[in-house]
Amino acid sequence: MVSRPACGPWNESAWSSPGQQGVVLSRASVWRLLTGRLGWSLQRPGRRAVERDESEIARWTAHEWPRIKRGP
């Protein structure tokens, strides 16, 4: 019979590794492990549409936005 960790891997308060039975880490510990020892960093992709038209954005910002902001 396989023993299960006290805490599942998706528990809000802790994280456990399925390969290491009985090892339970808090979120803070996992963060320190990933950033400190493994050198990971928080990265978010900068998403930009392929169809992005910089000249149209500049025109809208210069002409349309002030008109909208000013109101009727």
Total helical elements: 2
Overall spatial form: elongated
What helical percentage do the residues reach?
25-40%
Please outline the major beta sheet. Answer: 2 strands, antiparallel
**Which stretches of 5+ consecutive residues score pLDDT under 50?**
none
Strand order of the largest sheet: 1-2
Task: Tell me how many strands there are.
Answer: 2
Overall mean pLDDT stands at 78
In terms of structural class, how would the helical and strand content be classed?
A: mainly alpha
CA-based gyration radius: 24 Å
Portion of residues in beta strands equals 5-15%
Cα distance spanning the termini: 73 Å
**What is the H-and-E element order?**
EEHH
Protein described:
There is one protein chain. The chain is mainly alpha-helical. The protein is 39% helix and 8% strand. It is built from 2 helices and 2 strands. The protein has a two-stranded antiparallel sheet with strand order 1-2. A hairpin with a 7-residue loop joins β1 and β2. The model has no long low-confidence stretch (mean pLDDT 78).
